[in-house]
Amino acid sequence: MERRKSQKHQLLQTIQYRGELTQIERQELDRLEKGFQGELRMDQMVNEFLTGEIVVIDDLTLKYKGSLVQIDKIIIAGNTLYLIDMKNYRGNYILQNNNWYCGDKLLTANILEQLRRAVRLLIQLLQENQLYLKVVGVLAFVGLDGTVVVKDSVSEIILQYGDISRWLYRLNQEQTYLKYPNCEMIIRNYQVDPYSCEYRVEMADLTKGVCCPKCHEIGMKEHWYKLSCSCGYTEAKLVGYLRTISEYGVIFADKDLSRKDLRLFFGEGVNDDYLRRVLIKYFELKSKAARASSYVNKGILFEYLFENQRELFVKINQRAGWKEPRSSKYEI
After folding, report:
1. What would the pLDDT profile of 38-72 be if each residue is shown by its tens digit?
2. Residue extents of the structural domains in the chain
3. Digit-coded pLDDT (tens) for 272-284
4. How far is CA 243 from CA 170, 209, 211, 227, 313, in A?
5. Are 258 and 293 contacting, i.e. CB atoms less than 8 angstroms apart?
6. Which of 63, 78, 250, 321 has its Cα between 20 and 30 A from that of 17?
7. In what helix (H) or strand (E) does residue 100 lie, and over which residues does it extend?
8. What is the CATH number of domain 7-188?
């Protein structure tokens, strides 16, 4: 599975086109986006340089004896587990006398502490399961415009962006057989859902309608098989409906999917019968009352919700070019 944006990242990204973000929220969204892009750069290098009997695990949240840790990446090679924390920072960082500086400014937090906490937890978890791997913390600065100078002696590996490819290449050259082939399965037994996002928004504060994925204008126009935007973008109506249902699910992740609420979210132009049939076909029925049904809300964006059906939806999107009705009912 490809790396996903965090729940908070998906939420702020979705809300920014339908409502107002505060300056702090916009800064947080920018930080999350930069961090995600840095993680993708690291993923690309790992995919390019590592081969053979090496296990790579991305984006884990583990719970062990009541403690939670979020881990960006794990690489297991031979008898060593590398626990990697990625930072997409700009600027010049210095570690000296157990203090971190950005330029001449003393930082209040120790950048290594999150990594060290995760290493301690993972060592305990592995030992409890008789997995005696060496656990090494790796702090990877994945920003293109950042530098780091380490003047202290530390047990972690600290990498600048330019060091990462060389380190991965050496790791690949030095690899041996996996000491514990079942290690990933055991680690995943402790995996839990990512940290939940406490951010809340009211339906009344959102602009209603289908959002264009190209220009982000709200209110795409509905045709027989497609949705169109004034910017010239078109897509299959089914894709637009599924995408908008998923956006609702991200914003209101703590709620089930109900037609009543979705009708409000889609706005006045919604085709209620089409919405009903899309929900029936593509979403799991959760409960059914006398006059209303609700469906399971996974709380993730369309591209993640249907990531295993990408080829199907590429074909479905070709309907945007259909000119005449081919049946008496809308295609779903």
Report:
1. 999 999 999 999 988 899 999 999 999 999 999 99
2. 7-188, 209-321
3. 999 999 999 999 9
4. 43, 11, 9, 12, 11
5. yes
6. 321
7. strand 99-102
8. 3.40.1350
